[in-house]
Amino acid sequence: GTISSLQRQLEIQESQLRRVKSEKETLQKQLREREHQLQAMSAKFCSLTEEGEHGGLMAAIEKENCSLQQIVIEQESSLAEQKQQISELQGTLSQLQAELLASRHHSQKQQRAQAEMESRAEMLQHRELQARVALKALTIRFERYRNQLIQAAFSPAGSQAPQAELTDEEVLKAMQ
Predict the structure, then answer these.
(1) Which pLDDT score is estimated for 126?
(2) Which of 134, 174, 137 has its CA nearest to residue 153?
(3) How far is CA 160 from CA 147, 155, 156, 157, 171, in A?
(4) CA angle in degrees (0–180, nearest 5) for 123-127-129
(5) For residue 84, which of 9, 12, 24 has the smallest C-alpha distance?
(6) How far, CA to CA in Å, does 119 sit from each of 66, 100, 103, 109?
(7) Coiled-coil ranges per the record (predicted)?
(8) Which partner for 100 in 6, 32, 61, 127 could form a disulfide, CB atoms 3.0-4.6 Å apart?
């Protein structure tokens, strides 16, 4: 869950980074266009001054030149902000990538520990099964020994031992 959350955050940050880069390219393109307009206006201004007709037209050109310079300044400011955002997003992106790697490492470590615990559990189950088999064998041997003791204790002197082993119920019936 943590890994998928980090991956989603990483994808969001990368998407924002792509959007900011796209906006940056658009702003740079607009800035180049404005600079071309400004150069064209400057060339126009120079040609008008050479002709000597710069009276009212000169004021209009100056006004447009000032507005274009203001737009260039605003575009450069916006571009600087976009660069700042890009650097912040890249920092966040690298941090998220580091967290993702750490999370993956931790997950792999837990998986190895779980596999080891499962192996130990299987080994303990095998040992338990062996112990049960040994206990069953000892119980059977104990029952045989007990039956032999009962037969030896309760059989009359000089009598022959029965061919088959006596069970507890047979001994009980004989005693009753």
Answers:
(1) 96
(2) 174
(3) 15, 8, 9, 9, 16
(4) 115
(5) 24
(6) 79, 29, 24, 15
(7) 3-44, 72-99
(8) 6
What letter represents residue 61's amino acid? Answer: I
Name the token pair of 22: 């796209």
Q: Are 171 and 149 in contact (CB under 8 A)?
A: no
The three-state secondary structure class of 25 is helix
DSSP, collapsed to helix, strand or coil, labels residue 162 as coil
> How confident is the prediction along the chain (176 residues), in pLDDT tens digits per residue?
888 999 999 999 999 999 999 999 999 999 999 999 999 988 887 776 666 555 666 777 788 888 889 999 999 999 999 999 999 999 988 999 999 999 999 999 999 999 999 999 999 999 999 999 999 999 999 999 988 888 877 776 666 655 667 677 877 787 77
- Please spell the DSSP secondary structure of 35-73, one letter per residue: HHHHHHHHHHHHHHHHHT--SHHHHHHHHHHHHHHHHHH
Residue 96 and residue 98: Cα distance in Å, rounded? 5
Contact 24, 90 (CB under 8 A): no
Chain position carrying tokens 């993702």:
100
The token pair at 63 is 């006004």
Alpha carbon distance 161, 176 (integer Å): 20
